[in-house]
Amino acid sequence: MNIEIYVFYFFSVLLLFSAANVVLSNNAVKSAIHLVFSFFFSAVLWLILNAEFLSVILILVYVGAVMVLFLFVVMMLDVNITALKEGFVKYFSSGLAVFLSMAILLIFFFQRDFDESDKNILVEINVISDDNTENLGYVLYTEYLLAFEIAAVILLLGIISAITLTHRKSSVTKYQNPSEQIDVKKEERIKILSDEDLK
Questions:
Q1: Are 133 and 81 members of one domain?
Q2: Which residues of 104-125 are buried (b: 16+ CB within 10 A; e: fewer)?
Q3: pLDDT value for 123
Q4: How does pLDDT run across 55-107, given as a tens digit for each residue?
Q5: Same-domain check for residues 27 and 68
Q6: CA–CA dist 34, 36 (Å, integer)
Q7: 118 lies in a domain?
Q8: pLDDT at 128 (0 to 100)
């Protein structure tokens, strides 16, 4: 057998183990860390399947950004472990039924899809090199240029909207203006009130 098969099975077992620990761990931080390992092992499997771009994106985006945010949120939460264990036991049978049904449907779908993939090819892509990332870039900037530009504009609008909502001044909050504080005069700082003014 080829060495890639052994590497594939090794990382597949590690992926199944870490994915099971995500669900079965009684600590939210440990579950998030096992989810990081699951993403990493999935990226290795994608790398074996010659999907280098997806592998790198999975590590950079999910492990590098999303999971760091998850860890911050999980570490700030006060999770009641006893209530979680009670809910796990209570909904174990229904969760197992949903898991088995989804697994059977996915296995049936992928088996049928891969069996018929050689018979009918939907889209023919011009392959310019052996590098998948270069081929993906070529397809994005030639055949799907309009969709790529629309997605870029939508993401830019999302960034501008987030910045605008964050920096919008509230009418309730009092703000300080340092230039006005520096230019203030002595007469404006102190006002001496007489007894008549207090009445």
A1: no
A2: eeeeeeeeeeeeeeeeeeeeee
A3: 47
A4: 888 888 888 888 878 777 777 776 665 555 666 667 778 888 888 898 898 88
A5: yes
A6: 5
A7: no
A8: 62
Q: Which of 65, 90, 115 is the last residue of a domain?
A: 90
Question: Do 85 and 20 share a structural domain?
Answer: yes
Cβ neighbours of residue 30 closer than 8 Å, sequence gap 6 or more: 21
Could you tell me which residues come within 8 angstroms of residue 28 by beta carbon, excluding any fewer than 6 positions away?
74, 77, 79
Asked if residue 84 and residue 131 are part of one domain, the reply reads no
Q: Which two tokens stand for residue 138?
A: 């070529």
Q: Which domain holds residue 44?
A: 1-90
In a domain, 178, yes or no: no
- For residues 75 and 151, membership in a common domain is answered with no
Q: How far apart are CA 182 and CA 88, in angstroms?
A: 61
* Coil, helix or strand at residue 25: coil
Cα separations (Å) of 118 from 101, 106, 122?
27, 19, 10
Contact 44, 6 (CB under 8 A): no
Report d(CA 199, CA 197) in Å as an integer. 5
Q: Tally the domains of the chain.
A: 2
Q: Both 8 and 70 in a single domain?
A: yes
Query: What is the reported pTM?
Result: 0.56
Mean pLDDT of the chain: 79
**Mean pLDDT calculated for residue range 122-144:** 71
User: With left for phi above 0 and alpha for psi between -120 and 50, is residue 29 left, alpha or beta?
Assistant: alpha
